[in-house]
Amino acid sequence: MKGLVVLGLIGVVGIGVTFWLMKECTSDQGISITLACGNPNDGTVAMHAAMDMGIMRREGLRQAPDVSEDVLWREWLDEHFQLRDAAGESVHIERVGQSLLINVNKMPGAPDFFLTARLRSGETYSFDYKPWRAKATKYRHTFVAPADKTEMKRWNFELAEGPGR
User: Residue 120 sits in which domain range?
Assistant: First the structure.
């Protein structure tokens, strides 16, 4: 009889662990984006972020035949990315085609383009990514701008707002 009770307890614990693992494995794991910072210059440092092809696949550019490509990219950047300092001030982000800080031969995937910004060394920044315009889902990576050059590293942007939060 004791054996059946122990076996029952092991079964209940096993089922509980199984459901917990399923919940963890199916929860939002975030978005990985490769970031690197250059050598500091006059108290500021350049930050580069590699955007892989999946970023554009989620929600691409709006097509407007009477608007130039630059305006469309600016609109897309403003709708999907936001970089703020600790005081909540917005930091200007630019889209570029190449990066001297990120070696594309040593990173996973194939970047489609890069985002760049100038940051003040030693300050805290929040980098937000919103995959869809119409949804509340937002991913965030908070970091301190380094005082020295940093090698590229893939950072996980955690779910900050939206379903599952």
Answer: 29-161
